[in-house]
Amino acid sequence: MSVDSRKERTHAKVTLPADRIQLIRERLRKEGRVVAAELALQFGVSEDSVRRDLRELAAEGVCQRVYGGAIAMSPTPHNIAYRSEVNVERKDQLARAAAQLVHAGQLVFLDASTTNLAIARHLPQGIGLTVATNSPSIAVALIERTDIEVLLIGGRMDHVVGGTLGVGALQELQQMHPDLCFLGVCSVDPEVGVCSGGAEDSAFKRALVAGCGAIVTAVTNEKLGTAASYFVARLTEISHLVVEADADRGQLDRIRAAGVEIVVAG
Fold this sequence. Notes:
15 strands, elongated, alpha/beta, seven-stranded parallel β-sheet
């Protein structure tokens, strides 16, 4: 069989919707983002055909459609017990860098998150500040810190989030205006913004963003350039993003262009 014949057979194969969708799925998994015009050219089909493929993948929860294409969805969050045992060293590096953003005398909110738990453990000794949190684990981590006053938000415990949520938690949160908030998130993207995996958790985080002076989020690499089910904030509402030393430079350039200050851990 000639080379041209093999090319024709390959081209014919990827024009089938099922094959296109599988290839798009793989591209999203590897690169996190696809552009409809590029896929149409690669597959030799119309952009309308590609957009139909993307709609199908979005309906499956594989991606979220954005202008000109789609981005991958962040994996569904596991419960707090599982997350506490994953990427421990990477989160610790992020926490060391993030903790340096805290200043004496501040009211700091640490949102329920395993990375934020690591931040609590790295707060400078003798700093003298108040920490509010909806995470019992964070409160326990600070129980022996006599230089830190701890305010624990009450409410219904969510075992996936690892923190209190619901009406009671929101009411308590609305009575305070922290100087600085460390926000736990599932995904970060310049177009989609900052997102989370649960409706109630996202509502709590949106209230945090609305009531805090400055917002910081620390994320491992797999959260960059992805989306999650529920919107939390525009990227322009985030003051600092703490990232790993080997974070994708292209992703960071796009985030800087949105006006976010990048802090590189390590």
